């Protein structure tokens, strides 16, 4: 894989040509591509083409756009985005940076797709919009905090565009211990991995690897060339061993208008 060529394709296919999905508006305006969804769903800037003369105006325009709609939103900043001080400009405009993640990519054809689970763990596909609660429970078990709006986000995606996502939950002793999904954007070479966090008592048992293999198999069956993932510090070494390479880094910058309740903008990552 050629990292430079991959990064160009990633930017064009997944950022510049991003789609917001069911119930979300996608706009390319003022040098940015932004997604605007309803209350409780992810909204934000996914791509920008700015310089020192246009960045501050574009930032102010996005703050106004989402403030009028009373939306918290995220500006997804990548390490190669211009201008070089865009992060500092976002902080000056009231954005709060969250932990940086590494964008990692793998060739689907080179990934293992055999699912090997520890004893007592089962995987269950989630295809019914009314059966997404275990995924939300798994997220709470893995990260120690619940997101009340998460089940609604997942439900809306399964109901509105089921062909663009596959979801799975891992259960042990009848309880959800991990949940994950693979995003399957149409007309793109990249499928995206989200989730995979595991409840503390079940970490180190191979569940995360099994969920990657499960989703790699789905991506292969659907004809995708690559898998990408925003990797945390914890998952990056595992993904390296599985064959993923680092492409760039991304830092979510979150802006919350005054008076808006704590409603996390971050996706299930």
Automatic annotation (TrEMBL):
- PROSITE patterns, alphabetically? GNAT (PS51186)
Which residue positions does the secretion signal occupy? none
Q: What is this protein called?
A: GCN5 family acetyltransferase
Q: Which organism is it from?
A: Streptomyces oceani
Single GO molecular-function term? acyltransferase activity, transferring groups other than amino-acyl groups
Please indicate if the UniProt record lists Transferase as a keyword.
yes
Q: Which CDD domains match?
A: NAT_SF (cd04301)
The UniProt entry, under SUPFAM superfamilies, shows: Acyl-CoA N-acyltransferases (Nat) (SSF55729)
Q: Tell whether Transferase is among the UniProt keywords.
A: yes
Q: Please list the residue ranges annotated as the N-acetyltransferase domain.
A: 121-267
Q: Which UniProt keywords apply?
A: Transferase
């Amino acid at each position: 894989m050629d990292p430079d060529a991959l990064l160009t394709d990633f930017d064009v296919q997944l950022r510049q040509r991003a789609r917001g999905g069911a119930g979300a508006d996608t706009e390319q305006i003022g040098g940015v591509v932004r997604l605007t969804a309803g209350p409780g769903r992810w909204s934000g800037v996914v791509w920008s083409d700015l310089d020192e003369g246009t960045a501050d105006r574009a930032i102010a325009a996005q703050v106004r756009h989402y403030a009028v709609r009373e939306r918290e939103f995220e500006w997804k900043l990548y390490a190669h985005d211009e201008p070089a001080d865009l992060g500092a400009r976002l902080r000056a405009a009231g954005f709060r940076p969250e932990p940086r993640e590494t964008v990692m990519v793998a060739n689907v054809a080179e990934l293992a797709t055999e699912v090997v689970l520890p004893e007592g763990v089962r995987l269950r596909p989630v295809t019914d919009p009314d059966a997404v609660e275990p995924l939300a429970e798994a997220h709470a078990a893995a990260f120690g905090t619940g997101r009340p709006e998460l089940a609604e986000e997942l439900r809306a995606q399964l109901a509105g565009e089921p062909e663009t996502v596959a979801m799975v939950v891992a259960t042990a002793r009848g309880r959800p211990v991990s949940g994950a999904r693979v995003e399957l954007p149409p007309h793109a070479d990249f499928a995206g991995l989200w989730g995979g966090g595991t409840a503390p008592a079940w970490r180190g048992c191979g569940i995360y690897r099994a969920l990657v293999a499960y989703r790699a198999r789905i991506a292969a069956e659907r004809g995708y060339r690559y898998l990408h993932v925003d990797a945390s510090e914890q998952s990056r070494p595992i993904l390296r061993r599985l064959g993923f390479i680092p492409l760039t880094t991304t830092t979510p910058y979150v802006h919350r208008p005054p008076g808006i309740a704590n409603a996390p903008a971050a996706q299930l990552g």
